[in-house]
Amino acid sequence: MKAAKGNPGRRKIGSDPVEAGGAVASSITHPTWLKGPGLKIWKKIAPRLVALKLLTQTDADTFARYCRNYARWLSMQTRLDDMGEIYEIETASGTVRRADPAYMIADRLERQLVSAESVFGLNPAERQRIFAARAAKTPGADDLFRGQTMPAAPASPTQPSVPASTHGKTIGFLQ
Fold this sequence. Notes:
Layout: H1 2-5, H2 17-21, H3 36-51, H4 60-83, E1 86-91, E2 94-99, H5 101-119, H6 124-136
Antiparallel strand pairs: 1-2
Helix pairs in contact: 3-4, 4-5
């Protein structure tokens, strides 16, 4: 879309990370238990996540579970499209309408998928949040106390002495 609009800012336009990266996704292997439709979903989505650095080998089992659940959800949706969400049964008191079990299964799977999608940045809002957090992160940000010195001994027992470098900071020393 950016290429079609032109480049008024003259900044470099990024490309699709999968097309640009190529062999990057081969470094992550799927678990051997992932088969069939779940494996197809893995092959479709995993290369993009690897290229965006949102999927590592450590996450492979969790992401494979997501792919398997996504494949099951798609299967339930196909069944619901064919048969409908409601079925009727005859009882002694007349006709009763009930929700198809596939609807219940699909609903449960969908809730699990939404939760997993936010973890892997598979929706635009979460992806933006992850990228913003990466951009804001500074080297050594893992350590809340890095670069700060310990406060000097209190000047008096009633008033603690705090280094000038910590005034106005909300993270660091408890004051």
